[in-house]
Structure formats: C-alpha cells, structure tokens
Amino acid sequence: MKQLNQWLGLALLSVFTLISCSKEESGSGSGKLALSAKSTTSASTSSKAGTTSKSVAEGIEITDFVINLVEFELEIDVEELEMEDDQNEDWDDDGYFDFEDEIELEGPFTLDLMAGQISFLNVTVPNGRYEELEFKINKSKDVNSEIFDKSVLIKGFVNDVPFIFWHDFMDEIEIDFEDPTVDVTISNNTENLVIDFNLSLLFNSVSGIDLSGATDGNNDGIIEISPRDEDGNNDLAQIIRNKMKDIIDLLED
Length: 253
Known about the structure:
Elements: H1 2-25, E1 30-40, E2 45-48, E3 51-57, E4 60-76, H2 78-83, E5 96-98, E6 109-112, E7 118-126, E8 128-137, E9 152-158, E10 161-167, E11 171-175, E12 184-186, E13 190-198, H3 199-202, E14 223-225, H4 234-244, E15 248-252
Parallel strand pairs: 1-13, 10-14
Antiparallel strand pairs: 1-7, 2-3, 3-4, 4-5, 4-6, 4-8, 4-9, 8-11, 8-12, 9-10, 13-15
C-alpha cells in the first residue's frame, strides 16, 4: 500500500508538472503595460503674457495642449492567436485585450501634454505579442474639466495673436511602431510605451497646417478655431481634426 501511495504521488506530481509546462508554453502568465504620453515641439521656448510657450513652426507657438483619451485596446498578433489552443482566461475571445476585459484600461484620461511626459496607465496584461495599440479620443464628461464637452484643446499664438483651437470629435486611433515587424511584447516583463503627439508636424506650412490664414472674424483679439466659432474658422477646425491622426506615434521608452 505504501508503494502504491508513493507511485500515485509521483504520478500526480508528473501530471501537475505537465499541466504547468503546458500552461507556460501556451502563453499563460502576465506582465505590465506602462503607458505615458507627451507632445513633441521644437526646442525653443519663450514667454508671452506671463505664459511659457513652445515654438512648433515659424510664427506658431503653443502654450496649452489638453486631450481626453478613453478605451484602450491591445490587438493580439493574429499568428500567435492561431497558435493558441485555448484563449487566455484574462480576456474574452474577440482578439483584443481592452476595457471590456480590464476596467483600468477604460479611462478617461485627461492629459495636459505641455506639462512634459505624463505616465497615466500601468496595468497587468496577459503575456503575448500585440500588433497595435488602439484608443479613442472623445469628449470629456467632467464638468470641472477645462475641456468639459470637448475632446481636445490647444492654445497659443499665431504671429503674436492669441488663438484657441478646440473640437468635440470622437475618433478611434490605431498606432504601431514605425517598423511593422516589431510588436508590443509582454513576457513577464514591464513594457514601457509612449504615445507621442508631434505638434511640429501638425502646425507647419510645408507638410502640416498653416495657421497664418486663420482669422479673428469678430475682432475680439483672439483667433477662435472650432466647429462652432464666430471667427469663420470652422473649416480649418475640421482640417486640424483630420490631420491629428497623422501626427501620433508609438515609441518605446
């Protein structure tokens, strides 16, 4: 009987070891995803009317850039997903790790991107290779926020005249590394990623948007650019909104 018990114990240990190895091989386990965001401008700074501004193009300086981000998703690498016999228990079976799986990914995150690089999300993520990061830019619902009922707000100067741009759009943004062969890889590690909003690409007369034609239609001393302004810049607001997708990059920190 003693020998039988020893044999059963060894058999159970072998089965447990086999199951553990199988789980490791099938991609179980988790790591951390740490997300931060920043804005990129040229190096020069100046002071106007008691505020610090950063130059992004000739005659264009930015003092404020606030944006509201929600509902982040990581799209799992399709080839890796096909190799898995079973889905990871930490997510549902739609091929994404997102706000439906983990509430911390939902947000919202209202970010003041002129304050430097901001770390705003640190969440446990199942091990795996992820092809891209997706998130939404959407209106803030915080009545105490500077961008309540807005999704983005940018302030600055156009040839020394103050301007304000805001919009209330909702857009889904998909970003990846410049090299399409590089994935976001989580393997019992912490992956640090940076969402970079390059304002120098957004506002320039060569490949971006030239603000020199923006007008102060109501002559109140401020150039207003929005979907509902009185200065006659509504079409320009839509052009800026469309261009914003093109100036967002994903970087490794």
